[in-house]
Task: structure prediction
Amino acid sequence: MIFSNLDWITKKIRLPRGYRLKLFLTFLGALVLCGGGLIVLFGQIQRQTLQSETFNKGSFVSSMLARNLETPLFFMNMEQISAHVEAILMATDIVAIFVYDKDGGVIFSRLVPQKGIPPLRQEEKDHLVQLMAEHRNAKGDDSTANWNLEQYFVFCKQIVTIGQSNDQGSLYFDTGKVEQGTVIPLGGVQVVFSRSQYEQGMARIIRHAVLLFLFFLPISLFLAIMLARDVVRPLRVLVETLKTRLGKEEEEEEEEEKATDELGQLDDSLKRLVTRLDQSFDTIARMNEGLEEKVAARTAELTKAMQELKEAQTQLVQSEKMGAVGQLVAGVAHEVNNTTNFITGALPPLGKRLGELRRILDGHGEQCCPDAGRVAELMQSIDLLMGNVREGARRTSKIVTDLKNFSRPDNDLARPIDINHCLESTLALALPEYRHRMEVVREFAEDLPKVSGSQGQLCQVFMNLIINAVHAQPDKGSLLIRTFSAEDGVHVVFTDKGTGIPKDIQKRIFEPFFTTKEVGKGTGLGLSVSFGIISRHRGRILVRSEPGQGAEFEVILPAGQEPIALQHEENEE
Amino acid sequence: MCSDMFPLFSDGIDSPVKKSILLIALLLLFFASPAWALDCVLLLSSPLKPYEEARQGFEKVWLTQRSATGPKSISGNSVTQILLSEQQSTDVSSLKKQLQAARLVVAIGDQALAFVRDLREVPVIYLLAPSATPLPKNFIGIEMRIQPSRQLAAINKALPKVHSIGVLYNPAHSGQWVQEALLSPVASVQTLLFKKFDSQTSLPGALQELVGTVDAYWLLPDPQLTTPQVLGRLLEFSMKHRVPIISFSEKYLAQGAAMAVTFDTVDMGAQAAELGVMIARDGLGGEIPLLTPPRKVRVVANPTVLERLGVPFAHKGIDATYTPPEGGR
Result:
């Protein structure tokens, strides 16, 4: 309960936590350390400065006093010595000043009692005399400080003078050089300072340092919070962005449970991102592996489809053309049929009239016609001519019928047809045509499905193709007829070994009245009629031929016994 | 004309002989010392300002003078300056050779005099050399001491209100000078109050005896009186009792002396040049004394000190005034 409340409070007032807390503590520690270090350094510098100032002050005072005491000491003028010492004492916190002669004896002393400082004891005075003697024996004229005394700083300075110069020129001229004369010791001065001022200064420095640290502490806290917040903010945005991209709230919750700070969450998110990237790369690699094969297969399919499309387009164009030709032919056939009807309609009564005429002539004998021979001859000629007219009329009717079949097929009802049987019947009818000229080879599929259509029309088509094969092989030849079933229907293939069909005319062989036969031997309607019949049966007729290598016609009919509605001539007269 | 002057080159001599003589003469000239060309060598101890002033004074006179006879009567005098402080120790022997070959050597300063002390054949004029001791007869010197009577006259001219002058002296060092001063006719105008001292420590007492009895204090050229402590004490005395200090050198004006009665270094150089001309003309051993006092007294006043001490001075008796350098010392 307590922990949950704490958690709630932490979330509400946005206290630093997780990585932010670590950063905050790090920054705070660094700032406090730096600040503390700087304050300590500052204090140390101040302490050294104070020490240096104290030392410099002592050195300066002792040097100045020594310089001032040169003349009085030279002439042993105690009044002036006292005056100089008193002048120094007025401006400083000196505890005592001792003036020594050249033999180390104290010739003048001045003790200044100060508040809180006990007066110098005799042993301390003896120690000071000893220090001065040591300093004199050191043969240096620089001030030295002795820090060994508990409550005092002591500065010693020798007092010397320069004897008369040996350089007579320097008596008259300023030679610019330090006059070289004999250094004559006159004595020494010893200045004793109290440590109290120094220690007060030190205490003040420490106090200032502590105050400075206390002032710096809240600033450090504030800076640490701000720094931690500013550093973590972009990290949080990054983590949130990654989470959004990676999705799945439940996963986030799981990850949040695992990683408590932003850096851990970022690490987890990045790991998941990397895993997903790896998976994506694997998928891409796998897809790449079969891509070329698939492209090749699709290309082949597309090529095939394109080929089929071209063929369909060709057939469509052919169909349209044949449709237009059919309409033309139908009109022409209609007019020819009407004209032929006059002939065929007139022939029976004409035959009847000629029969009556012949009977009359035969009944009257020579009385009716003296030249009976001639009459008989004429009658015979008339019969012959009548036969010719009848044959012409019959042929014309046949042509018209064929044209009508091409353009306007029979109105037969479609029914299931056994193609093999239809072929056998057609071959039997055409036997006189090819019996001694062509060998027919049958390769009929046994389980060939039936097709729906008009048996007469289909037999007519087969007859046309067989007769064409006979004509294509005038000497000796062979014809292979194959039937088989495929997905697209029942296939009937006629393969001959004739001269073949040139490429440039292959597209025209289904046009009406197009023929390569001699005049009078073909009407040019066989293949066009066949094309129309097969089209009405929703089938296709294809031709494949190479010059000199025979030709192959393939009829493809849709399999199935369902009746199909063949197109009929509506306006047939 | 050439043949008349040099008969060896007359046409009567055979040509090979003439060529040989000419060659020998050239060889002799080649091996001869080049110092024959040096007219006067001016040897300076160091580039101190008074030495430079003396050199300028010498050259100003020397270079305008012409000898009465000889080649110099046509070409005029020349001078070769040598600064002794810049000479390398390795050049000493060659320098001495040059000096021995010179017509005249002028030594300015103690160091220069010490360097030429062993010259015997060449006349030497020395000046600004306070350490000069008895020297050979070829040394002619200009001393730095001015007769007390001349000094007192200059003091009287510059400080007409000063009638009583106090002097501290060490008999061992300045006894003769004091005797000479006492005999000076100017002493009738000014009262000289001499106090002896034996050691520096007895100086304050001697000085104390002058308090209230003297108008000025005359500082003598005594090394014992110019130590910092003694000078300090004298200056303290001067300030305390309003007694101007009259020194023997301009050097002490900067330290607080009120006036300097001294020699003129430029004129001293000119004086040396005139001595040189005389030597060139008459040679040594004539009427030229071995030691000559400076002919001109130069009075330099420190008007600031004089005014602060309340001592009036006459401008006509002063040759120059001391101006402290900018920024002080």
